[in-house]
Amino acid sequence: MAEAYIVEALRTAGGKRKGALSGVHPADLGAVVLNALVDRSGIDPAAVEDVILGCVTQGGEQSFAFGRNVVLASKLPDSVPAVTIDRQCGSSQQALHFAAQAVMSGTQDLVIAAGVESMTRVPMGSNFNLHAQAGIGEGPWPASIRERYGVDEFSQYHGGQAIADKYGFSREDMDAYALESHRKAAAAIAAGAFEREIVPVDTPDGRFAQDEGVRANGSMEALAGLKTLTEGGTITAGNASQMTDGASAVLVANEEALKRFDLRPLARIHNLTVTAGDPVIMLEEPIAATERALRRAGLGLDEIDLFEVNEAFASIPMAWLKVLGADPGKLNVHGGAIALGHPLGASGTKLMATLVHGLRARGKRYGLQAMCEGGGIANVTIVEAL
Fold first, then answer.
1. Which string of DSSP letters, residue by residue, matches 108-119?
2. What angle separates helix 286-297 from helix 315-324, to the nearest 10 degrees?
3. 135 backbone dihedrals φ, ψ, rounded to 5°
4. Would you call 89 a catalytic residue per the annotation?
């Protein structure tokens, strides 16, 4: 079978909600990373055959063929098509899967997978209640689904809390995990670990190039002072991912494109896995998806050098570690979404940029990325640094 390679992987720094990136239109934010991919790889922009863009909240400024609008805002020519996809938090990770499948099949040779989310300008969930505004319909879950699963709605928060309860994680356990995420992220920034992957963004207030949500001076005392989201729960704003504005993109090529355009890849895509399970507990599925990915890749967990498991809530990577018995020293070594933020549709290719550059900086070989997603779905990607 033909191979798929990552030629370049970039992201913006994460902007806090209503923070540094709040003055940038989401299409312009996406254009920044597309332009940087072109500049850094040296490709002819017209050689790009498609842009597959993940975005979760497709409304307002992120509506009306949003992926195409990102292309139109960029230096890519009008001849480059685009499509917008929603696999919830894994949207741009799935975009990467689709791009890899396209080049592996030979139907296309050079494809960009990307993601954009402005959680300031298009708030999370703002597209849920359109039925109420229109005075018609009942929302995303019809009675048939609600009756089948015995719920009024599917909530990622309730899923994250259910996982914490199932595995016995205390509030202190989760806060300690969160504090460590901030510590690792602050250390990574101080060491310049993100410099290769971050693309500066010119904003109305100046140039932005450093993740904004990292609390270098955080403490257990400060975390303990935050209210839980529900009475008796363990999840707080401090041990959950931060609402974030951001964009990311990966340039994917097959061997034909590498030769034709004289490209040097950063990594080879080794495995693409997506699975689905219980839509109520919802966020536990990365465990099963990781197990399947490793089986299909013919790899043992101990052969993976670095893991990126999205920190939607602290309970998610904590459960993943507990069940699989993975080495915590290999997990989210530069911090995760609790510290660096979770720009929804952009997080998939954002984490891939961090994973690929982290592997190469350490001289390591295999990396695995896992993402929990709404609806009980999970994407896992295994890459091999070159």
1. -SEEEEEEEEET
2. 50
3. 75, 25
4. yes
Catalytic residue among 55, 182, 357, 372: 372
CA distance 283 to 373: 6
pTM for this model (two decimals) = 0.97
Of 89, 270, 334, 357, the active-site residue reads 89
Q: Which of 158, 182, 270, 342 is catalytic?
A: 342
342 counts as catalytic: yes
From 11, 70, 55, 60, select the one nearest 247 (Cα to Cα): 11
**Distance between CA atoms of residues 43 and 46, nearest Å:** 8
How far apart CA 36 and CA 118 sit, in angstroms, is 19
Residues 32, 37, 43, CA angle at the centre, nearest 5°?
135
**Token digits for 67?**
């992926």
Which of 203, 196, 230 has the alpha carbon at shortest distance from 8? Answer: 196
pLDDT in tens, 194-229: 999 999 999 999 999 999 999 999 999 999 999 998
Residue whose token pair is 């690929």: 356
Rounded to whole angstroms, the Cα distance separating 196 from 137 reads: 47
What does the pLDDT look like over 317-369, one tens digit per residue? 999 999 999 999 999 999 999 999 999 999 999 999 999 999 999 999 999 99
Reported as type and span, the H/E element at residue 104 is helix 91-105
Q: Is 55 a catalytic residue?
A: no
Tokens 């091999």 appear where? 384
